[in-house]
Specification:
The protein is an alpha+beta fold. 31% of the residues lie in helices and 27% in strands. The chain has one domain.
């Protein structure tokens, strides 16, 4: 299944969860509901996947965990924070680099409208600074974005 189709199904699941729950819950509430939604969507996924660091040919457990690995090809990072920070994007970029995967959405559920809490991250593209991010109304579509916020309206 192509990254675009997987990502669209992931986003649909996230929109369903956010529509029912809204903002202001714990991250664990959203991840539990996403697990259910991924099952409903027929997506194969793993939750809280350990991600080792390979150093000098040896796999070392360094404490990294992927929130969701979907269809063995897309990493989903879930947050429930006041504002996504560059640190959150860097965390997902690190997961992508260590896993050798290329794409993952960063989902912040603690927003009034989920569209303002979605950031797509693509391995190998530099992350823009916060000041360089476009307003949500002028952001590229999900399929065009690199690490920008996504306008899904």
């Amino acid at each position: 299944m192509a990254h675009e189709l997987i990502t669209e199904r992931i986003l649909q699941s996230a929109f369903n969860v956010h529509a029912d729950l809204g903002a202001n819950l714990l991250e664990s509430s959203y991840t539990s509901c996403l697990q259910h939604e991924f099952n409903v969507q027929g997506l194969q996924f793993k939750y809280q996947v350990p991600l080792p660091v390979v150093y000098q040919g040896v796999q070392l457990e360094a404490g990294y965990r992927i929130d969701f690995l979907v269809e063995e090809s897309v990493i989903v990072e879930v947050k429930a924070v006041e504002k996504l920070l560059p640190l959150h994007t860097a965390q997902l970029i690190t997961h992508l680099k260590l896993s050798g995967l290329n794409v993952g959405p960063l989902l912040n559920f603690n927003v009034p409208h989920l569209t303002s809490g979605i950031r797509r991250v693509v391995n190998g593209y530099p992350a823009p600074t916060e000041n360089a991010l476009p307003a949500a109304s002028s952001a590229p579509t999900f399929s065009e974005a690199k690490t920008d916020e996504v306008d899904r309206s």
